[in-house]
């Protein structure tokens, strides 16, 4: 198959910048791409890199797009190198969107999307509601992000009233004693049946990680506290895999790897090195969807699917994978997309 290829870079400021132990992130930059086959069928894709997680950066993605001819083939798309995982995701999602075909090309095997004939001819026809037009829409639940620090104590209630029951709070941003104090207050006030995820983005020391896991185990053991601490995400930096594997045997509180499994080769390596805990999978930067699908089916990993703060184009493709590959009914890390100010529909129309 061959397609007419067009692309547009974009920049979108977050309504509220995101503070993590990596620093402050206030603008999402990416690329929207459009493939049109010779029947006029259109597929949209999004390249949304997170270079500090190990994907390519925007410049590298733009360089790749610019060197492509106006007509691209399946062969080109399915041989995008592993150094460009966000490009692999964007292009393959767009092929997937063009229509239902069996993919038996290139190095990744995958099954085409059976939702043939879905009209994707204009951007605005894309469903902006992430739950609509998703195959087998199980009862999807979402995790909502709480801001780092004390602000979490105010923000959670609004989100709870909006129906969120799983929250993710960034830690490793402020001094550990301060965050533990806030955590105790959070654990005492969150209602029962609420789940709390703690995401350190690799920012804790080994001692701090032990202190956090020990504290979370105590919250679990305290029958007067009804909140469920679901897991601590990436407590240590990527180079401390062995320490995290050891910690995962020492505490009841689960550990989830995120930055350690950001790209497909990292994901495979951590599995091969014995990780059987939770894998946070960001489809937007992990790479080829068909290769991810095959890995998750074969290895039956306990996956939490997570956003890269993409637009509804990348989100739709990522949620499709999340619905297909989620196990253990874990909430999807694609909380309400309040990260951008302007109305997504208007923004998309202005872009193209
Ligand atoms: O996973 C979620 O709940 C939302 C997405 C999210 O937390 C992140 C997305 C992208 C980069 C990171 O700052 C952050 C993460 O570490 O998981
Ligand atoms: Mg994370």
Structure overview:
Helix 5 runs parallel beside helix 6. About 9% of the residues have low confidence. A 7-stranded parallel sheet has the order 5-6-7-8-9-10-11. The protein has a 4-stranded antiparallel sheet with strand order 3-2-1-4, sandwiched between helices. It has 2 domains: 97 residues, Enolase-like, N-terminal domain (Enolase-like, domain 1, 2-Layer Sandwich), CATH 3.30.390.10; 200 residues, TIM Barrel, CATH 3.20.20.120. The chain is globular, with a radius of gyration of 20 Å. It has 352 residues and is of the alpha/beta class. Helix 4 links the parallel strand 5 and strand 6. The chain contains 12 helices and 11 strands. The two termini are 24 Å apart. It binds the ligand O=C(O)CCC(=O)C1=CC=C[C@@H](O)[C@@H]1C(=O)O and magnesium ion. The ligand O=C(O)CCC(=O)C1=CC=C[C@@H](O)[C@@H]1C(=O)O binds next to strand 1 and strand 5. It catalyses: (1R,6R)-6-hydroxy-2-succinyl-cyclohexa-2,4-diene-1-carboxylate = 2-succinylbenzoate + H2O. Converts 2-succinyl-6-hydroxy-2,4-cyclohexadiene-1-carboxylate (SHCHC) to 2-succinylbenzoate (OSB). It is an enzyme of class 4 (lyase).
- Kindly report the average pLDDT value: 89
Question: What is the approximate shape?
Answer: globular
Secondary structural class: alpha/beta
Terminal-residue CA separation = 24 Å
Corresponding CATH architecture of the largest domain: Alpha-Beta Barrel
Output the CATH homologous superfamily of the largest domain: Enolase-like C-terminal domain
| Strands, count | 11
* Rg from alpha-carbon coordinates: 20 Å
Placed side by side, the strands forming the largest sheet appear as 5-6-7-8-9-10-11
């Amino acid at each position: 198959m061959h397609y007419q290829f067009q692309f547009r870079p974009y920049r979108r400021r977050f309504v509220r910048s995101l503070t993590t132990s990596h620093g402050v992130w206030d603008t999402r930059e990416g690329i929207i791409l459009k493939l049109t086959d010779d029947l006029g069928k259109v597929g949209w894709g999004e390249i949304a890199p997170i270079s500090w997680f190990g994907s390519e950066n925007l410049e590298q993605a733009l360089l790749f797009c610019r060197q492509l001819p106006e007509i691209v083939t399946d062969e080109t798309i399915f041989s995008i190198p592993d150094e460009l995982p966000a490009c692999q995701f964007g292009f393959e999602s767009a092929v997937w969107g063009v229509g239902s075909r069996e993919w038996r090309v290139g190095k990744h095997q995958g099954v085409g999307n059976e939702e043939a004939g879905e009209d994707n001819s204009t951007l605005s026809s894309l469903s902006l509601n992430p739950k609509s037009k998703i195959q087998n829409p199980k009862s999807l639940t979402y995790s909502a992000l709480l801001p780092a620090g004390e602000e979490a104590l105010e923000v959670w209630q609004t989100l709870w009233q909006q129906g969120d029951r799983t929250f993710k709070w960034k830690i490793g941003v402020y001094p550990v004693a301060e965050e533990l104090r806030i955590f105790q207050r959070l654990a005492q006030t969150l209602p029962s049946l609420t789940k709390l995820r703690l995401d350190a983005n690799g920012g804790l020391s080994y001692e701090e990680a032990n202190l956090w896991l020990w504290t979370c185990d105590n919250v679990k053991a305290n029958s007067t506290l009804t909140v469920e601490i679901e897991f601590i995400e990436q407590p240590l930096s990527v180079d401390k895999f062995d320490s995290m594997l050891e910690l995962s045997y020492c505490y009841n509180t689960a550990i989830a790897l995120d930055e350690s499994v950001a790209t497909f080769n990292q994901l495979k390596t951590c599995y091969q090195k014995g990780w059987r805990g939770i894998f946070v999978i960001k489809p937007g930067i992990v790479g080829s969807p068909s290769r991810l699908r095959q890995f998750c089916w074969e290895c039956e990993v306990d996956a939490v699917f997570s956003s890269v703060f993409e637009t509804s184009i990348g989100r739709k493709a990522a949620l499709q994978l999340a619905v297909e590959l989620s196990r253990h009914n874990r909430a999807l890390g694609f909380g309400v997309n309040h990260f951008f100010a302007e109305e997504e529909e208007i923004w998309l129309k202005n872009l193209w």
